[in-house]
C-alpha cells in the first residue's frame, strides 16, 4: 500500500529538525540532523511512500528545494509571516506545525524558479542590491550636507567632476573627509551597477520572452530583464489581478454590511467599497519597473490616453497608476501568448 507522509522541516544554520506525520496526522518519525546535503538526503531516502515536504522561506530554502525536489512528490516553501502563531514556539513545535498545515492543505506556497531562469534571477538580485546600496550612499551624502545647512537639491552633488567644489563648502575637516569617502564609495558602487546592468541584459538576451517584453511601450532592455528576473514565468499568475498584487499595483478595498433586508428579502446594499490604497506586500523591483514604464509611455505613445484620463477628472498620480496597471496587464497577456505588442489591438487607446 502506498502510504502518504507529510514532513515538516525547521531549517537552521547548523541543524534541521524534521517531523513526519502519516495520513491521519500521527507522528511516525522525528529527527534532528545536520544541515548538510548527505544527512538530509539520507533521512528523506529512509522514508517510504509518497512524500510531501514543507519548509519556511529562508536563506537556505532554494538550496534545499533543489536538493530534495527530485526525491519527493511535493516540496512546498511557505512564507513564515503567513503562518499564524499559536501557543509555544520551538524547533520541534514549528516542524510539527508545518507538517500538520501541509497535511490539511493550509499552506500557501512561495514560487521557486526552475534552473533555466536561475541565472537571470541571480543577476537581478545582484543588480537590485547594488542599486539599493547606491541609493543609501546618496541619501547619506545629502544628509551630511543638509545637516550643515548646505542646499544640495538635484544630482550635482554626486558628480565626480564637481566633488572638489562641494567639499570646499564643508568647514569641518573631519566631516569633509567623511563626505569625500562617501563620494568615492558611491563612484565605486555606480561602476558596479553599470557592470551588473550589462551582465543582466546580456543574460536575458538568451530568453525569447525578452524580445516580447521589449515591444511593450515603456519597457526597454533593462526593464524587460527586471520583469523576467523577478516574474520568471507568466504562468504562475492565473489572472492579471494576481500579477497586480505581486507587482504592488493591486487596489485594496474594504466593505462591510454588503447585504440588507428589503420588503422581507435579502438584497445587496448600495454601499460602495472604501479604497484603502495599494497592497503593501509586493515585489519592489517589479513595481518600480512598471511605474517607470508608465512614466516613459505617457510622454510618448500613450500621451493622448494619459491626457484623456486627466481630462475626465482623474488626478495625474492615479492616471499614471492606471497606465502602469494597463502595462502590467498587457505584459502578462502577451508574455503568456508569446505575442509582440500591437497598438491596433489595444482598445483603450482608441476608446478613451
Mean pLDDT metric: 90
* Neighbour order of strands in the largest sheet: 3-2-1-4-5
Tell the overall outline: globular
- Radius of gyration equals 26 Å
How many helices?
Answer: 13
Distance between the termini: 62 Å
Low-confidence stretches: none
What sequence of helices (H) and strands (E) makes up the elements? Answer: EEEHEHEHHHHHHHEEEEHHHH
Helix and strand content put the structural class at alpha/beta
Explain what this protein looks like in three dimensions.
The chain is an alpha/beta fold and 352 residues long. Helix content is 48%, strand content 15%. It has helices spanning 37-46, 61-68, 91-103, 118-146, 163-167, 173-204, 209-214, 221-231, 240-246, 284-297, 303-311, 316-337, 348-351; strands at 4-11, 15-21, 27-34, 50-56, 74-78, 251-254, 259-262, 265-268, 274-278. The chain has a five-stranded mixed β-sheet with strand order 3-2-1-4-5. Helix 2 (61-68) links the parallel strand 4 (50-56) and strand 5.
Short description:
By secondary structure, this protein is α/β, with parallel strands linked by helices. Helix content is 48%, strand content 15%.
Question: What are the defining features of this structure?
Answer:
single chain, 352 residues, alpha/beta, Nucleotidyltransferase, domain 5, 5-stranded mixed sheet, two-stranded antiparallel sheet, 13 helices, 48% helix
Amino acid at each position: 500500500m502506498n502510504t502518504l507522509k507529510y514532513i515538516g522541516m525547521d531549517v537552521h544554520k547548523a541543524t534541521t529538525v524534521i517531523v513526519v506525520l502519516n495520513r491521519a496526522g500521527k507522528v511516525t518519525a522525528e529527527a534532528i540532523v545536520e544541515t548538510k546535503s548527505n544527512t538530509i538526503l539520507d533521512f528523506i531516502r529512509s522514508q517510504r511512500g509518497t512524500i510531501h515536504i514543507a519548509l519556511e522561506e529562508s536563506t537556505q530554502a532554494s538550496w534545499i528545494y533543489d536538493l530534495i525536489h527530485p526525491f519527493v512528490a511535493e516540496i512546498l516553501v511557505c512564507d513564515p509571516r503567513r503562518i499564524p502563531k499559536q501557543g509555544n514556539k520551538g524547533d520541534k513545535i514549528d516542524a510539527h506545525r508545518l507538517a500538520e498545515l501541509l497535511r490539511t492543505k493550509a499552506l500557501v506556497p512561495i514560487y521557486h524558479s526552475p534552473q533555466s531562469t536561475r541565472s537571470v534571477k541571480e543577476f537581478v538580485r545582484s543588480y537590485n542590491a547594488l542599486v539599493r546600496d547606491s541609493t543609501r550612499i546618496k541619501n547619506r551624502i545629502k544628509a551630511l550636507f543638509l545637516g550643515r545647512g548646505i542646499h544640495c537639491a538635484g544630482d550635482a552633488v554626486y558628480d565626480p567632476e564637481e566633488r572638489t567644489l562641494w567639499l570646499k563648502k564643508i568647514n569641518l575637516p573631519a566631516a569633509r573627509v567623511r563626505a569625500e569617502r562617501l563620494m568615492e564609495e558611491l563612484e565605486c558602487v555606480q561602476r558596479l551597477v553599470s557592470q551588473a546592468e550589462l551582465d543582466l541584459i546580456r543574460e536575458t538576451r538568451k530568453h525569447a520572452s525578452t524580445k516580447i517584453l521589449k515591444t511593450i511601450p515603456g519597457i526597454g532592455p533593462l526593464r524587460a530583464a527586471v520583469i523576467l528576473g523577478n516574474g520568471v514565468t507568466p504562468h504562475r499568475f492565473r489572472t492579471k489581478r494576481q500579477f497586480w498584487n505581486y507587482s504592488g499595483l493591486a487596489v485594496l478595498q474594504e466593505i462591510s454590511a454588503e447585504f440588507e433586508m428589503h420588503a422581507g428579502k435579502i438584497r445587496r446594499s448600495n454601499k460602495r467599497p472604501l479604497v484603502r490604497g495599494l497592497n503593501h506586500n509586493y515585489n519592489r523591483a517589479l513595481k518600480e519597473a512598471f511605474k517607470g514604464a508608465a512614466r516613459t509611455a505617457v510622454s510618448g505613445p500613450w500621451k493622448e490616453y494619459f491626457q484623456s484620463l486627466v481630462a475626465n477628472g482623474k488626478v495625474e498620480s492615479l492616471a499614471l497608476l492606471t497606465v502602469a496597471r494597463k502595462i502590467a496587464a498587457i505584459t502578462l497577456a502577451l508574455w503568456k501568448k508569446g505575442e509582440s505588442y500591437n497598438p491596433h489591438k489595444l482598445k483603450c487607446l482608441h476608446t478613451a
